[in-house]
Amino acid sequence: MVAMTHRALRKSQLIAFDHVAAGHDGILSDVSGEILAKPCQQDEIDFYESTRTHPDFAYYIPIHCGTLSLGQSHDVPEAAAVFPSATAAAAPQPWVPSNGGKINTDCAIVLENVAAGLRKPNILDVKLGARLWADDAPPAKRQKFDALSEITTSKPLGFRIAGMKTWIGAKAAGLSPGGPDGYKVYDRHYGRALTPETVREGFENYFFIDSASITKKFARRVIKRFLGDLRGLQEVLEKEESRMYSASLLFVYEGDGAGLQADFETEKQVLDLETEQQLLELGTVQHGVLSNGYRDRPVLEDEGWSIEDEDEDDDDEGVEELPKIQAVKMIDFAHAAWTPGLGPDENVLHGIRNVIKILTELLTQ
Fold this sequence. Notes:
Number of strands: 16
Strand order of the largest sheet: 1-6-5-7-4-3-2
Shape: globular
Largest sheet: 7 strands, antiparallel
Order of helices and strands: EEEEHHEEEEHHEEHHHEEHHHEEEEH
Strand content: 15-25%
Distance between the termini: 48 Å
Helix content: 25-40%
């Protein structure tokens, strides 16, 4: 096992992360794009650290690498990465609507970038729950969030689309070949305008993208894998006793159609499987390990970021690595806690079950 070490990260080594579909501003990335630094409060750090005693659930969230101390200002010349976290709790502040702006905090949590390894990641953020506020929320926040839930799909379906970014190709985006972007962005207002009758269209826009050569055949293969992971997450949460207000499901998959097709072929050759069904069955047995990629822990070494392999074996040398095709993780735990004696979180589970229902329906269209 590789020992964890400490290293200072200079501000110049952190850049703005540009693949955010929803949530607060201010997320940073290292230059490799493998890890993210998300500004947050101590409560969220504490929850991530608590998942070490809930390994089944921890499988379905981004790998937690440690914390980043931002200092008194986000413009300090350098910040220190600490493993494990030891950030002092910040004094509570009166609630003011952020409207997606930066969180006023001096600390950040360091997480794996779930989209790392994808050429053109398609990203979807689904906010879970009809109730979006925790027990300690002030009346103003409760009133605002209840009103939002009432006029969106949050109340009837237990979820709403918070934001999406899909690769549609440079040509479709009106850019010259090889242009700098080629993404279509669906902001929070798009998701809020959807109704229980039209929300399926949002998922169709996420999966079926002809201009990027994402055919229905390829899209359905991706959807089947997402369904396997969502059902696994549902099973885990039905056994846990927790409350996770305003948590989200983060979906990512390869948005370059040609690359997606090549990845399917590579995966088939590496695993020496003849049919997609064989792959799905193997993935189910392994609780989605094939669709989510490695679960080794990233650590910060003197040479840079690497993977801590707890089962390092020389016999694995030369084994071809599976391409990353898609992943779904639960994120955003600013208002999450384990609640022994209160039963499963039906507020979250209601949303997950309805997402599963809609994705299942997409397979038949």
